[in-house]
Design brief:
- This protein is α/β, with parallel strands linked by helices and 428 residues long.
- Helices cover 51% and strands 12% of the residues.
- The strands form three sheets. Strands 7-8-9-10-11 form a five-stranded mixed beta sheet, with helices on both faces.
Length: 428
């Protein structure tokens, strides 16, 4: 059966080794951007493995272009951390000031004590404002002196595909439009995007041309796990779309694809390099697609249900960050998405305690596309409890609907406020 239905099979160890030694390893733009979201150890281990395989790496021109287009936004992501810090502090000043008004003449909380406490909070606000101030200058400096870019320049020297002519791009976009209309992957799920909607199709068509000219095995590394790249079952990634495998076979290529974390875990054993479990966890959290799509829809739902909320996606060098920080009228809620193809265990979530200590939060919501073991759920709740943070864990099998998550989010807000049932103020 393996011969007749090879598109449904993952490569054997022997086949995988052959890809790494004689095939083509293709890196998508989201993989090129992933190191910016990693700590020093994970970044170093990632580059170490890729550098050992540089002779097999190839970057389509489209992926390189998307990398440079999106690089400033990724580098500037630190500003979102400051945005997430500033609002809770300014809200605290208002609340403290109002509360102190009710304590005028109190024998313990004197006017001097009030001034001293308010000065500490105002100093914290000033510190955050100083850090966020001048960010345009820091961004310009970061774009000029960028260690991630410097590392990529070494690894990818001579490994970039040529720029297609304007005529070729126009022809491929016309073909992409027809493919999208027929729901032919990849890229058709981006058909409603306002910009670069043909990006995935242009990358794929460029790759097909390369393999047609030089047949051989191909390993595509992409963190885009939407359903126009990967086969999914109950929210879990189970392999590349069979249409992609078949189309590549038609031009002489044996095709497989992986997310960056899965690739590094398997490749490390072959090239005799080390990648730690902590690094793999951090790298796996850079995957986009289903989680990002769900996040965007969740932002929309919460924005309707809870007036006055603001959102940020923090990036921190000091420790793991939640995928989303939501500033609400009752406090700050961190939201973390997990998209594992197996049951999540307590060990998988040990990093959560560090995350909770690295960010100011009143509530924490863990969202999983698969089963969360009772021990893992307790790990989250207990870690949050030690920080006096309200926490909930929700499993969502249908990642096309954010309603169950929004419901859990609203219940979490009431948990923060000390209510046992959903507050009727939330219009959901």
């Amino acid at each position: 059966m393996r011969t007749e239905f090879s598109e449904y099979y993952s490569p054997t160890d022997e086949e995988y080794r052959a890809i790494l030694t004689s095939g083509t390893i293709v890196l998508d733009a989201n993989v090129l951007l992933a190191p910016y979201k990693l700590g020093a150890d994970a970044r170093r281990q990632t580059f170490s493995i890729l550098e050992s395989l540089r002779e097999r790496i190839w970057i389509p021109y489209q992926a390189g272009w998307e990398f440079f287009e999106n690089r400033p936004n990724v580098i500037a992501g630190e500003d979102k951390v400051y945005q997430g810090l500033l609002k809770p502090l300014t809200d605290a000043i208002t609340k403290l000031d109002n509360h102190f008004d009710t304590l005028r003449g109190h024998p313990v909380v004197t006017d001097e004590e009030r001034v001293r406490i308010m000065r500490h909070v105002e100093d914290a606000v000033s510190s955050v404002q100083r850090l966020s101030g001048g960010r345009d200058g820091r961004l310009e400096d970061a774009l000029q002196v960028d260690p991630v870019l410097q590392q990529w320049e070494v690894i990818l020297a001579g490994r970039l595909g040529g720029q297609p002519s304007d005529e070729t791009v126009a022809d491929r976009e016309k073909l992409a439009e027809k493919r999208y209309a027929s729901k032919i992957p990849p890229g058709h799920l981006d058909s409603e995007k306002e910009s670069n909607k043909y990006g995935d199709a242009l990358l794929w068509l460029d790759l097909l041309e390369k393999v047609r000219a030089n047949p051989g095995p191909v390993l595509m590394i992409t963190n885009d796990v939407k359903e126009d790249w990967y086969r999914r079952q109950s929210g879990r990634t189970i392999g590349p779309r069979v249409e992609l495998v078949r189309e590549m076979a038609n031009v002489g290529g044996k095709y497989y694809q992986q997310r960056l974390a899965a690739f590094l875990q398997r490749a490390a054993q072959i090239v005799d390099k080390r990648v730690s479990a902590e690094s793999l966890e951090a790298i796996s959290r850079t995957s986009e697609g289903v989680g990002q799509t769900l996040l965007n829809r969740l932002v929309h739902e919460i924005g309707i249900a809870v007036p006055g909320v603001t959102f940020s996606q923090p990036i921190s060098d000091s420790g793991p960050s939640p995928d989303l920080l939501v500033n609400t009228p009752v406090g700050v809620v961190g939201v973390e998405f997990k998209n594992y193809s197996r049951k999540i265990t307590g060990r998988d979530l040990e990093y959560v305690e560090h995350m909770l200590a690295s960010h100011v939060m009143d509530g924490f919501l863990l969202v999983s596309s698969g089963e969360v073991s009772p021990m893992a759920a307790r790990t989250v709740v207990q870690a949050a409890g030690r920080k006096r943070i309200a926490a909930r864990v929700v499993e969502v099998n249908d990642f096309h609907s954010p309603h169950a998550i929004t419901q859990s989010f609203l219940e979490l807000l009431d948990q923060i406020r000390g209510h046992g049932t959903i507050n009727k103020n939330w219009q959901y």
